[in-house]
Amino acid sequence: MIDTFKTLLGDAGVLTEPDDVAPYATDWKHTVRGAPACVLRPRNTADVAAVMRIAHERRIVIVPQGGNTGLAAGAVPDASGSQVVLSLSRMKAIQNVDPVGMTIEAEAGCILKTAQDAAADVGRLLPISLAAEGSAQIGGVVSTNAGGINVLRYGMARQLVLGLEVVQADGTVINGLRSLRKDNAGYDWKQLFIGSEGTLGIVTAAVLRLMPRPKLVVTSLLAVADPAAALRLLKLMQDELGETINAFELISGLSVKLVEEQFGQRAPLAGNGWFVLIEASANLGGLREAFENVLSRALEQAIATDGVIAESQTQAAQLWAIRERITEAELKAGRSVKHDVSVPIPALPAFLADAEASVSSGFPGARINAFGHAGDGNMHFNVLVSVDTDSAALNRSVYDLVAIHGGSISAEHGIGSYRVAELAHYRAGAELSIARLLKRSLDPKGILNSGKILGMEK
Ligand code: FAD
Ligand code: MLT
Ligand code: ZN
């Protein structure tokens, strides 16, 4: 098998040495350690198609991998030694940036930050933004239907994908790299591949929507007593500032403390409850004055207890660094069990209170690192635990409450290999049946990232 792939991709396109393969074998959190038979590094779509034809013929399981920043361990192989990682990293060209049509076309391996910068160079905004944007790739972002900090205004990756090129399990290339805003000619098949975590096809390139680049940006950190106050603040902000709000991030006191402990970075305001980081932007004047007025009202009405507005881009970046470093601070702090959950927005305070009570009573000593995209109803209810904590029991205690509050066990990170059992438990019935039907239709031999999302097909 290795020789066949070397003939196809050349020596540089096939990694087999343990040191070369190691970075591709474990996930960002180092929770899962796989054993790939080799790592393939195609140069173009034709290479990917040829790899898939061989894999299909010989029933070789292919695990697509982008920047390997995923938080569901979806991009790493299992420990069998037979699965092959397909890294898209060499396919990183930006094919086109169009400031009039407001689109960007890029290969799957293009780093998200590189694509953002290319859009900025022509005065446009690629609004998908997340703390891992310096490593995450367009193919990974599309395949996880990534969210991030700007979903409130611009939607998830799905809302920004106009066209896709995909290689199917048998090597067939579907070229749908169209940049059309309106296209009702038949089924919108690309939706199947967005968020399917490499289990239905390999994304090789995408056309994404761009937005006007706002000239005025206001960034503010506020202290609030609790999540209920944060939702009152959200309503006030939306009433007064409307669609100018890009981000509304809720951050617990413990999250801020973790960043201070691990990075020595302090929040520039006092607070003994929760914090909200808000970003608003616009192109027409008056935004800052309007924001200051709303902030004054929030303080007068005791919705917020304190607040600062960044005076410069540097200060804004410092406020964002507090938020964006939470995940790394959590990793440095020791073992954690992540819950990337969403509930209907009005249910957030009750869910957080119930989940905190349940974890505190069931898992003494556990520390709750809760933060996230509250404006979307998405919280990262991550729990710092000791080495002997039963993570399955912890998951159950959180996810049962997610279900009671009408939520989802994965808001944006996906199922990967972390949440396979939980998906089967919480999404039983017809929804799983249709998922299996799609999987069998598009990947009848079960060679695309098998074991992920739906588990091993029987
Ligand atoms: P990978 O990790 O390489 O892969 C992710 C999944 O997609 C795997 O199942 C893989 O098999 C599949 N895949 C990758 N490339 C392809 C392809 N070309 N074709 C088919 N399948 C493919 N996520 C959010 O949604 N919002 C956040 O705010 C956020 N913040 C993060 C912050 C940090 C610090 C970190 C480490 C991660 C964060 N993530 C977040 C998770 C992660 O960055 C995103 O899921 C990102 O989209 C993954 O991109 P990637 O290129 O690293 O994909
Ligand atoms: C984030 O929003 O920073 C990541 O999605 C969250 C995480 O670490 O759980
Ligand atoms: Zn997130």
UniProtKB/TrEMBL annotation:
Protein family (similarity comment): Belongs to the FAD-binding oxidoreductase/transferase type 4 family.
Protein name (database record): FAD-binding oxidoreductase
Superkingdom classification of source: Bacteria
Transmembrane segments: none
SUPFAM superfamilies found in the cross-reference section: FAD-binding/transporter-associated domain-like, FAD-linked oxidases, C-terminal domain
PANTHER family: BLL6224 PROTEIN, D-2-HYDROXYGLUTARATE DEHYDROGENASE, MITOCHONDRIAL
Pfam families given in the database record: FAD-oxidase_C, FAD_binding_4
Coiled-coil stretches noted in the UniProt entry, renumbered to this chain: none
Keywords assigned: FAD, Flavoprotein
FAD-binding PCMH-type domain span: 32-213
Organismal lineage: Bacteria, Pseudomonadati, Pseudomonadota, Alphaproteobacteria, Hyphomicrobiales
